[in-house]
Design brief:
A hairpin with a 5-residue loop joins strand 8 and strand 9. About 10% of the residues lie in helices and about 25% in strands. The chain has a domain of about 110 residues. With about 170 residues, the protein is of the alpha+beta class. A 4-stranded antiparallel beta sheet has the order 5-11-4-12. Strands 6, 8, 9 and 10 form a 4-stranded antiparallel beta sheet that branches. Strands 1-7 form a two-stranded parallel ribbon.
C-alpha cells in the first residue's frame, strides 16, 4: 500500500519570512560587491594624435608611464598630485572599450591597468580631448593610452595635377 509523501508548505510565516529576507539580501545594493564590474573608461578619437585613446568617464585622456610594468610603480608620493591614478574599489572588475585589469598600488588601492600598465589622468589636461601629458619625460615617458594605430598617410599622387605645357 502506498503512503502519500507530504511536503511542508512554504506558506508558513517562518518560511515566507526566510524567502523574503533572502530576496532582499540579493537585491540590496552592495550585497554582492565582490565580483561586480564597473564602467571606468571610454574611447575617443584624438585629432592631435591621430589615434583613438582611452579616456576616463569625463573624457579626460588616460596615460601610462613607460617605466611602470609588471607591478613596478614609479609614480608615488608627490607624483600623484600631477598624475592621478584611475582607481577602482577592490574586488571590482573594470570595464571599458578594451580589456582592462587592475594592480594593487603600494598604498593598497586598486588601480586600473591597460595592457598591464597602470592608468593615470594628467592634471595639466583641462578639458576633454587634451593630451598635454603626451611625451613628458621624467623617470620614463608618459604616453596617452592609445587603442589604435595612427591613420596611414595618404598615398602620394603619381602625377600632380598640373597642366602640361604643350
Amino acid at each position: 500500500m502506498r503512503h502519500p509523501i507530504r511536503f511542508k508548505s512554504l506558506r508558513s510565516p517562518l518560511s515566507l519570512a526566510a524567502v523574503a529576507a533572502l530576496a532582499l539580501a540579493l537585491l540590496a545594493p552592495g550585497a554582492a560587491s565582490a565580483g561586480q564590474s564597473k564602467q571606468v573608461a571610454k574611447q575617443a578619437q584624438n585629432a592631435s594624435l591621430g589615434r583613438s585613446v582611452l579616456t576616463n568617464l569625463q573624457g579626460r585622456t588616460l596615460y601610462t608611464l613607460s617605466a611602470e610594468q609588471n607591478g613596478r610603480f614609479i609614480c608615488t608620493g608627490g607624483c600623484l598630485s600631477t598624475w592621478r591614478p584611475l582607481l577602482i574599489a577592490a574586488g571590482t572588475k573594470p570595464r571599458g572599450p578594451v580589456a582592462l585589469g587592475t594592480v594593487k598600488r603600494p598604498e593598497g588601492k586598486a588601480q586600473v591597468t591597460y595592457k598591464g600598465r597602470p592608468l593615470y589622468s594628467f592634471s595639466g589636461d583641462t578639458k576633454a580631448g587634451d593630451v598635454n601629458g603626451e611625451g613628458i619625460e621624467d623617470v620614463g615617458t608618459w604616453h596617452a593610452a592609445t587603442t589604435s594605430k595612427p591613420a596611414p598617410a595618404p598615398e602620394p599622387q603619381p602625377y600632380p595635377e598640373q597642366p602640361y605645357p604643350y
